[in-house]
What we know:
Layout: H1 3-22, H2 24-67, H3 74-80, E1 82-85, H4 99-102, E2 105-108, H5 135-151, H6 156-160, H7 164-169, H8 174-202, H9 210-237, H10 241-270, H11 276-288, H12 302-312, H13 324-360, H14 366-378, H15 382-410, H16 413-417, H17 423-428, H18 449-455, H19 457-479
Antiparallel strand pairs: 1-2
Amino acid sequence: MSINNVSKVVLIAKDEWRYWLRSKLAVTVLAIGLILTLSSVVVTAITMLELSHTRHELQTTSDKSFVDQPDRHPHRMVHYGHYAFRTPAPLSTLDPGIDAYTGNSIFLEGHRQNSAMFADSRQGTALTKLGSLTPAFIVQTLAPLLLILIGYSGISRERESQTLSYLLSQGTSGVTLIAGKGLALLSVVGLILTPLTVSALFTLGTDESLLAVVSFVVGYALYLTVWVLLILLASSVFSKNSGSFTALAFVWILLCIVMPRVASTTAAIVVPSAGKIETDFAVKADLRKLGDGHNTNDPAFEQFKQSLLKKYNVNSIDELPVNFRGLVASESEAKQTEVLNQFAQQRMQAELKQTQVSRYFGWVSPMVAIRSLSMIVVGTSIETHHRFLRETEQLRFDFVQGLNKVHIEELDYQDDMNRNADAAATKKARVSADNWKILQNFTFHSDSALVRAHRSTSAFLQLLLWIAVLAGGIKFVGKRLL
Length: 482
C-alpha cells in the first residue's frame, strides 16, 4: 500500500471517529464497553485475591488440625483425612476457566478418591452457559456485540447517504475505504483490550511467564480482529444498515451462543461417558472382589497371609514381627487404589476426548477457539485440572500408606485385636501423636508457559484461518464495492 493510500486510510479512520463521537449511541456503547471491562477486571481480581487468602488459611488450618490430633489408633487418622488446596494460576484472575465448575480442593482419605470441591458454580460447563461477568466473558461475548453496535453501519451508511459513489469517484478504492473503517474499529479493540492487557502484565509480578501473558493478549486481539472483519464484510455486502445489523446480530447469536452449546452437546454424543451412579456401582462391584481391608479373616487375603508366614518363617500371624492388620490395610489400600485409578483414568480420558471434540468447533466458531485458547494459556483448562487430580491422588496414597506404615510398625498386633475389650485396652491400642507429622507440603504449579503455548497452537491456527478467510472475502468485495 502506497503512502498516499495509507494517509487516506488514516483520514477515513479519523472521520469515522468523528462520526462516532457525534453519535450518542456510539459514545454510550464505547463507555459501556470500557466500564464493563475495567470493572470486571477489578472485581474479579479482588475476588480471586480473597479466595487465595481463604485457601491459604484453610490449608494451614487443615494441616494444623490434623497434626494437633491426640494419640489415636492410626486407622482412625486414615479416615480423619485432610485437605489439599490448589492455588490458581496468576492469569486465572482474568479467566477462571473450568475452575469455577471443577473446584480447587480435595479431601484426602483412605479407601476412596474424592472429586474436587468448593467450586463457584455447578450449573454447567464453560462451553454450555454464558457464565459470570469475568474479564474473559466480557471480551469473548459482550465485546463483539459492542463492536457490532458501533461498526455495523460503517460501509452501508455511506450507501444509504449516497456518499459511497462520491468517495469512490474521488479516487478512494473500495479496499482503502474498508481499511480505513477497519482501522477505526481496531482502535476500539485496542481500547477494550487495554484494561485486560494491563491486568495481564500485573501477573508478571506473581511469577507468571511473559510468554503466557503475550499469548493471552495476542489471542484476544486476534479474536476481536475476527469480529472487526466480520463487521466490515457484512457492512460491505448489505446495502442498508438494517440488513447489516440483522445479519451481524444473527451471526453473533449463532457463533457466541448457539455454536458453543452445539460443540458441548456434540462432544457428549460423540464421546459418551458413564454417569456418576453407573460408575459408582461399577467401582463398588470391583472393590468388593478385593475383599474388606478391615477384616483380616476375609478369604481374599488368605493367599497374602500365607505368603507372609512363609516370608517370615512363622506358623501364625501372632508370631509375625509386624502388625498383620496393618499389613492387610496397606495391601488392601494398594489394590483399591489401583482399581480406583483405572476408573479415574477412564473418566479423564473421556473428558479429554470430549474437550478435544468441542475444540474442533473452533474452525466454525471463533468463540469456541478463543475460549479454548484462553483457558489453555491461562492454565485453567481440563488438562491442568486432570494433573491436579493425579498429583493429589499420589499425595493421598502416600499419606494413607504412611499411616498404614505406622499401623504396621508402631502398634502391637495383640493390642490391636483387643482394642475394644475395655477402656484400658482402647488406650493401649493408640500410637503417639508424633506420628501425625507425616503430612507433606503440597504445592501445585501450572504447566510451563511453553507447554501451554504448544497446546494452544490449534486455537491460534483457527483464529488465523478465520482472519485469512474474512480478509480474502473483504478484498473480493472491496474491489466490487459500488
